[in-house]
Every structure is written in structure tokens, then in C-alpha cells.
Amino acid sequence: MGKGTIHVKQLSKTFKKGNVQAVKDVTFSVREGEFFAFLGPNGAGKSTTVQILTTLINATAGTVEVAEHDVISKPHEVRKHIGVALQETGIDPSLTGREMLLLQCGIFGFNKSEAQERTQELLEIVQLTEAADRICGNYSGGMRRRLDLALTLVNRPKILFLDEPTTGLDPSNRKSIWEYLERLNKEEGTTIFLTTQYLEEADVLADRIAIIDDGLIVAEGTPSELKSQIGNDLITMVFASTEEVTHAKATLEQELDEADIAEREEQLIMYVQDGTKRLMDVIRVLDAHDILVQSINVDSPTLDDIFLKITSENATQKGEVNYG
Ligand SMILES: Nc1ncnc2c1ncn2[C@@H]1O[C@H](COP(=O)(O)OP(=O)(O)OP(=O)(O)O)[C@@H](O)[C@H]1O
């Protein structure tokens, strides 16, 4: 236990409007000082979960404890220990960056000199010292995100919630946000709960990842645990047409025991434990059946592969279309 922990049990949220079940019986915990990523496509239920965890909306069912307090019965206690940066920033375009920060310090009860000191410190952390006295309305998207991050850090929160903090940013701005977050997590021990659609972001930053799809957690683990779930290697085969792909898949499944193969456009992806050894079998089968393959490679899986595999299995189980 500790102020930097999150415990979520059987959390569900149904929006009456449209009768949308946005979150379905979700259970997970985040440890003190952990960097936790909630990874999922558009509409998966990430923002809804963040809004419940940060006391902004109520759950339909389940229990949520953040910083050792129940979000329903003790929302004010929870808010004392958290920082929240949502997708829409709460920045007033007519104020300067410095004014925004001073205002935020005031909200948290800092006196004038404390507020000035903390503001200067935060401007330096997010590298906005030079732009501090310009109005926020003229800031670039990246600068606005950095200011937003600084605003969430004013009260030195034990837990920081970030809802897609780098969506829409260019690679260099994304990288600098990553660096601040890593520093904050490593040096200050801040627990970070981050939602993202970017696999690379979760892979680079997170100690642990939960993959959410259609309101359900479909996988959870460290980046390497998730990668090893689907085999150590991938054999990727490219064919000239989708008919060839379908024919090759059926043939390989018939000839090779327990072949785990997915279709993706003109490609077949085969999940295997030992890629180099299995490659020989694959070539032998394709050759024996006169199936022409345009290219064939052995690679290690990325989180992208895991994501596609898991979410397509989830869709198949529900009888929806496969990604193939
Ligand atoms: N206030 C609301 N009223 C009705 N439905 C809602 C509301 N907010 C979200 N939803 C629905 O709940 C589902 C989950 O939405 P949510 O915003 O949590 O997804 P997300 O994973 O954050 O997506 P994105 O990456 O696009 O932000 C979606 O189907 C969405 O349309």
C-alpha cells in the first residue's frame, strides 16, 4: 500500500446516452512508483477509465481506490494526491504560461514567493522559460502540452494521470514529453498512469501495460511478457494476392502441426518459438505446393504485432470481422 497506488476492482461504466458499455468488469492494480500504460485503440474505454479514477465521473459498478482512498466516498482526499492531464487542456489562451502556473499555485494554497519559486522551477523542467511571458494562445501544440504537464505537477502529485499526452505531437515534442515523464517517474518516484494509442510509447516508457479493447482488458504484463506471449519469433510472408494468402494459410495449417497463423492484407504472419528452424519447414511446404511467395522474413515481435493479434482474436471471438 501507499499513496502512490491504484486498485481497481470489477469496474464497469455504462453511459445511459446511447446505452454504451464503455468499461466492462475491469480489474487491475498499479504499484507505488510504477509506470503503467493503458493501451488501446479509439473508443476502447481509456478516457472513461481515467475520468473515473480521477473522480470526474462515477462508475456504474465496481470499486476504485486511488492514493488509498475510495474515489466515490473520498474524492477530495484522492484529488489532493493526484495530477491530471486530460485530452482537452484547461489552458486559458489569454494568459501567459507564467500566469497560468501562478494561478494554479494559488489554487493549491501557495503564498506569493512559494508560487513564484515553484513556477520558475516548473518552467525550467518543461523548458518553457523563454516562452513564459507570451500568451498561451500563441503556443504551439507541443508547448501547450508541456505547459499542461507543468500545471499538473504544481502540487507534486504522488500519482500522475495522463490521457494520451502525446497524441498529435511531432516526434521531437513527443520525445521531450517522454523524457520529462521518465525523469519524474525515476527521480521523484511518481506513479504514472498513462493512456496511449501508441505501442511504441507504451513499450519505451511503461513498466507494465494493460491492453484494453472494447471496454475489456485483453492482456496485461511487462512489455517483454506481452511479446513472449505470442512466440519468440514471427515469420512474415508476402504474397501477390489475397487469394494466394488464403491458399497458403490453409496449406500451411494442414501441413504443419499447430501452426498459429494470422492474415494481414497480402501477408501471412506465423507465430513461432524458433523462427530459423521453422522457416525451413515453411519453405518446404510452400515449395511442395507450388505456392509462390514474394518475400519471407524472420523477425522478433513488436508490441504492434501483439496488439493486432490480441485485438483481432477478441473481435473473432465476438464473431466480428478479423483484421486479415
Ligand atoms: N459521455 C458519454 N456519453 C455516451 N457515450 C460515451 C461518453 N463518453 C464516452 N462514450 C463512449 O464510450 C466508449 C469509450 O470511449 P472512451 O472515450 O473512453 O474511449 P478511448 O479509449 O478513450 O478512445 P480515444 O482514444 O478515442 O480517446 C466509446 O464508445 C464512446 O463513444
Overview of this protein structure:
This protein has about 325 residues and is α/β, with parallel strands linked by helices. It has two domains: about 5-220, Rossmann fold (3-Layer(aba) Sandwich); about 230-300, Alpha-Beta Plaits, CATH 3.30.70. The protein contains eleven helices and 14 strands. The chain has a six-stranded mixed β-sheet with strand order 6-7-8-3-9-10, sandwiched between helices. Helix 3 packs across helix 4 (about 110-125). It starts with 5 loop residues before the first strand and ends in a 7-residue tail after the last helix. The protein binds adenosine-5'-triphosphate. Adenosine-5'-triphosphate binds near residues 22, 40, 42, 43 and 47.
CATH topological fold name of the largest domain: Rossmann fold
The CATH superfamily title of the largest domain: P-loop containing nucleotide triphosphate hydrolases
- What is the CATH class name of the largest domain? Alpha Beta
Number of continuous helical runs: 11
Ligand types: adenosine-5'-triphosphate
Q: Mind telling me the C-alpha Rg? A: 23 Å
Strand percentage lies at 25-35%
User: What CATH architecture of the largest domain would you give?
Assistant: 3-Layer(aba) Sandwich
Instruction: List the uncertain runs.
Output: 320-324
Structural class: alpha/beta
Task: Characterize the overall form.
Answer: elongated
Mean pLDDT: 89
Extended strand count: 14
Work out the count of structural domains.
2
* Oligomer class: single chain
Helix content: 25-40%
